[in-house]
Amino acid sequence: MSKSDVVSVVIQVGNSDDKLCQKDWHRYVHEIRRSVLLFTEDLHFDGCSRGDSQYQNACIVAGIRVSCLDKLCAELSRVGGRYRQDSVAVITGEVTFIKGLG
Questions:
Q1: Could you tell me what percent of the chain has a pLDDT over 70?
Q2: Is 8 within 8 Å of 63 (Cβ atoms)?
Q3: pTM, two decimal places
């Protein structure tokens, strides 16, 4: 797999509208994570907002094959719909590596 076959993807979900109780939020984030892992072996970051934060948010960053991006988005939409979510944020883009000086 060449670097040109992979796009960096940031997936963000939240529960600031309190539609999900804690148990459902846990299940939702778990299913989102599992969905991403179906399409990548290149997980860069997986984290959530602080436990004492007013809002519940989760973010996953991964390298996804371009050929799998539509399938990933369809899967995320399916999971989001199952948990009554209005949307799942998906940001895609090329990574630019900035070399250090010195």
A1: 96
A2: yes
A3: 0.89
